[in-house]
Amino acid sequence: MIVTVTPNPSLDRTYEVPSLERGEVVRATGERMDPGGKGVNVSRAIAAAGRSTVAVLPLGGAPGALVADLLDAQGIEAAPVPVAGATRSNIALAEADGVLTKINAPGPELTAAEQELLLETVRQRSRGADWIACCGSLPRGLAPSWYADLVARAHTAGVRIALDTSGPALLAALRRGPDVVKPNAEELAEAVGRPLATVGDALKAAEELRGLGAGAVLASLGADGQLLVDATGAWFGSAPVDTVRSNVGAGDSSLAGFLIAGGSGPDALASAVAHGAAAVRLPGSVMPAPTDLDPAAVTVTPQVPVDRPLTEPVP
Ligand SMILES: Nc1ncnc2c1ncn2[C@@H]1O[C@H](COP(=O)(O)OP(=O)(O)OP(=O)(O)O)[C@@H](O)[C@H]1O
Ligand SMILES: [Mg+2]
Predict the structure, then answer these.
(1) pLDDT confidence of 166, banded at 50, 70, 90?
(2) Where is each Carbohydrate kinase PfkB domain found (predicted)?
């Protein structure tokens, strides 16, 4: 069982529009609503794999009630923590040529009592769980040390913890020794304060995050693949993708793939890469089912191609 935590979930509203004209009335040709947030995505991917998961998330107001309904309709078990502020609505404008413009709202500020209830709900729901996956940014009101507290509490309870966040929240949590962190190239560069030009630069940065306390680092490098660095060594995994339809949620799908394959070692890396590749072949943030995966296309090697330039270097 894998518990996911999404401290700042959203009601994602996507409007399909022919094209965007600033200052004009834009008529949508289609619209959809989805439960949003990175931990929610991880739960959706785990459920799509037929594995058990519960999504812990603060929900408030009418948008929060809608998120709960949408999760229920998708068969995702949720442990909502009622909060006074309304859950944010994030807007995505999808133009016919494939360009996606997103407007993300800040979300409600959680009171001290709500923050504690969130931690307590995670504690209750993670009894006997294999993993807790903490994903995404922190809402206003949560100190950058909030994930660090969660890591410490999870370890006291004997549960392993995976963390996908960035900035000060990531740096603070590293000191508490999360079992795995999953930065993308940008987040990795920000964490070490250096640009990344090659796979070797990413490897050095991932090793540095391990030095700061992470048990393992699963670094996702977009089209270039993924790196896994743990106490026993480093591996590089990749899979070719002919047609990329949407990379939204590819990192979340990868983390889910890593955890459902046990959450450590080269086989889990291969599963992460297979899930990432499958996710980018699917539209929007659709999460892959087992039939969407092509494990035979994945290569995992301990020979990290350190001199290979990144397709998208981070300046
Ligand atoms: N263009 C691509 N071609 C092939 N594979 C891709 C491509 N983009 C992403 N992937 C796969 O998906 C994984 C995750 O992508 P990425 O590094 O962009 O994650 P991310 O930025 O954390 O995404 P998100 O946070 O939106 O879920 C990559 O490591 C890779 O395995
Ligand atoms: Mg990500």
Answers:
(1) very high
(2) 16-291
Are 177 and 155 within 8 A, CB to CB?
A: yes
Q: Which of 166, 110, 109, 162 is nearest to 136 (CA)?
A: 166
**Residue 166, phi then psi, degrees to nearest 5:** -145, 175
Is there a contact between 218 and 272 (Cβ–Cβ < 8 Å)? yes
- Predicted pLDDT at 306: 98
Active site residue 34: no
The Cα–Cα gap between 225 and 219 comes to: 9
Instruction: Indicate the SS3 state at residue 179.
Output: coil
Q: Tell me, in angstroms, the distance from the centre of ligand 2 to residue 37's CA.
A: 11
Smallest-distance ligand from the CA of 251: 1
Tens digits of per-residue pLDDT, 62-85?
A: 999 999 999 999 999 999 999 999
Query: What fold characterizes domain 2-8+38-87+109-314?
Result: UDP-N-acetylmuramoyl-L-alanine:D-glutamate ligase (3.40.1190)
Confirm if 4 and 259 have CB atoms less than 8 A apart: no
- Going from the C-alpha of 260 to that of each of 11, 126, 135, 245, the distances in angstroms are 26, 16, 16, 24
What pairing do the DSSP bridges indicate for beta strands 216-220 and 180-181? parallel
* Alpha-carbon gap, residue 66 to 80, rounded angstroms: 12
Residue nearest to atom 1 of ligand 1 (CA): 223
Q: What is the distance between the alpha carbons of residues 153 and 297, in angstroms, rounded to a whole number?
A: 39
